[in-house]
């Protein structure tokens, strides 16, 4: 006797599942995909932003970069290779397989982190930050590319947000870990900030060896799916996203072809505006909180934890609602409005007497920013059809978006303390810019859908040709419909 779920599967025109149910299959996929990618990116983001914790623990003083913009330059240099190598990294991910490329990059940035704990001057810090950016370049777009290859659009947001929440967990865990490692000051003659880098780098290197065997591949080539499960997943994704085009050649000309679509550029601009706020907070949260006068260095580290933790839960709530209503646009704007309100408070409320109000505004900035970002990335990535357009498009969005890191690293200068008015104005401005780009993207995909509906209505669809070329055309196929 067929189960109710198997009957529904058959009615949906999908291959039968003879050894499991769809619910169990999705749980199996989630277990193989989401946890390992979350740990991977948690460590990547932790190694990227722990310099903010190290700065409060004495890094600037020991390296003689307390005044001027040398510290900001060290933050900025990370983004140069991080932006340049995003697209090549995604192409290598596809060619070398995710478990090889991602684990290799993971070991690389863990090793660099250890070296960062041993630097003795500003030049050494800048050098290690460059190589950190180079090895971390594949983490974020690579993981999103991999995630988008496994789930339907209506299933994706919870997984994307849970993965993206690795950043908020890293922020919270980083503050807690730094407060503990800071107490190791003097051990082996090293100050506390050095141990923050060394211990976290060692952890990353050790995990990278295990993750070589854990990181999954694409649905077409993993070994933990049987033939029935593989056929079912491929058919299910093809119904929602079109043919994957897994074996499509991706060369220089194919990469350039992707950029003939103006929507690709809007996707990068949407994310760009969010990055300015995100890294502005991630790199300078302990510095900002320190001006509120809650206590010493270790107390400041502990006060940096709650806003990150709140952002995690708020982001997941937004993701659940977004998937429930099968809608993305409104769930990009609502968090951005919260962030804008937070910046408004920070710009107008000052002084130690109001420090709790200012601290509360930081919750609004983190909750809003780190909830809008995963929705923007998911919305854009899941509207890209086929391996070719998705691999290039996701890398472009993250790569171009991270140019915002250049701006954020100079947003909060030492001379602007304690008000940091310029930093808050910059964050507020780019939030508004990102919101405008989301509206523009909505108009673009709505226009494309209407144009295709008119074309199909006039008999210009030619389904036989679409079936053959769908994997190469991806979301540019006439039969494809963008999700709002």
From TrEMBL:
Major facilitator superfamily (MFS) profile domain boundaries: 33-452
Gene3D superfamilies linked: MFS general substrate transporter like domains
The keyword Transmembrane helix appears for this protein: yes
GO cellular component, one term: plasma membrane
Listed InterPro entries: MFS, MFS_dom, MFS_trans_sf
A GO term for molecular function: transmembrane transporter activity
Localization per record: Membrane
Highest rank taxon of the organism: Eukaryota
Presence of keyword Transport: yes
Main location: membrane
Membrane topology type: Multi-pass membrane protein
Keyword terms: Membrane, Transmembrane, Transmembrane helix, Transport
Transmembrane intervals: 31-51, 71-93, 100-119, 131-148, 160-181, 193-215, 264-285, 305-322, 329-347, 359-382, 394-413, 425-446
The protein's name: MFS general substrate transporter
């Amino acid at each position: 006797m067929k189960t109710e779920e198997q009957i529904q599967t058959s009615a949906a025109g999908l291959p039968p599942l003879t050894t499991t149910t769809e619910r169990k299959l999705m749980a199996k996929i989630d277990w193989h995909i989401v946890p390992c990618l979350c740990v991977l990116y948690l460590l990547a983001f932790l190694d990227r932003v722990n310099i903010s914790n190290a700065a409060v623990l004495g890094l600037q003083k020991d390296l003689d970069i307390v005044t001027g913009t040398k510290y900001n330059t060290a933050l900025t240099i990370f983004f140069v290779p991080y932006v340049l190598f995003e697209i090549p990294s995604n192409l290598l991910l596809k060619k070398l397989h995710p478990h090889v490329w991602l684990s290799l990059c993971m070991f690389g940035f863990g090793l660099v982190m250890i070296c960062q704990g041993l630097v003795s001057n500003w030049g050494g810090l800048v050098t290690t930050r460059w190589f950190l950016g180079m090895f971390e370049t594949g983490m974020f777009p690579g993981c999103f590319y991999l995630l988008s290859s496994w789930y339907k659009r209506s299933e994706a947001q919870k997984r994307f947000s849970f993965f993206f929440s690795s950043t908020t967990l890293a922020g919270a865990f980083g503050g807690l870990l730094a407060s503990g490692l800071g107490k190791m000051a003097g051990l082996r003659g090293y100050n506390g900030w050095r141990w923050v880098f060394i211990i976290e780098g060692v952890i990353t290197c050790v995990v990278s060896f295990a993750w070589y065997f854990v990181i999954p591949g694409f649905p077409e080539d993993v070994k933990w799916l049987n033939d029935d499960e593989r056929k079912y997943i491929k058919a299910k994704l093809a119904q929602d996203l079109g043919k994957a085009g897994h074996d499509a050649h991706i060369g220089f000309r194919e990469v350039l072809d992707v950029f003939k679509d103006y929507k690709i550029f809007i996707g990068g601009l949407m994310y760009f505006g969010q990055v300015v706020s995100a890294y502005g907070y991630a790199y300078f949260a302990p510095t900002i909180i320190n001006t509120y006068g809650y206590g010493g260095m270790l107390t400041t580290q502990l006060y940096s934890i709650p806003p990150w933790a709140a952002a995690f839960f708020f982001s997941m709530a937004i993701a659940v609602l977004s998937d429930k209503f099968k809608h993305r646009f409104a769930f990009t704007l609502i968090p951005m409005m919260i962030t804008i309100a937070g910046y408004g408070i920070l710009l107008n409320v000052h002084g130690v007497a109001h420090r709790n109000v200012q601290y509360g505004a930081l919750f609004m900035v983190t909750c809003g920013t780190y909830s809008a970002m995963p929705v923007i990335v998911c919305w854009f990535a899941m509207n890209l059809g086929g391996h070719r357009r998705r691999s290039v498009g996701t890398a472009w969005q993250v790569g171009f978006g991270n140019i915002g890191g250049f701006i954020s690293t100079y947003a909060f200068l030492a001379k602007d303390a304690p008000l940091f008015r310029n930093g808050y104005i910059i964050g507020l401005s780019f939030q508004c810019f990102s919101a405008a780009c989301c509206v523009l993207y909505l108009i673009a995909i709505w226009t494309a859908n209407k144009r295709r509906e008119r074309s199909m209505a006039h008999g210009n669809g030619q389904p036989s040709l679409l079936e053959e070329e769908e994997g190469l055309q991806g979301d540019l196929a006439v039969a494809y419909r963008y999700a709002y």
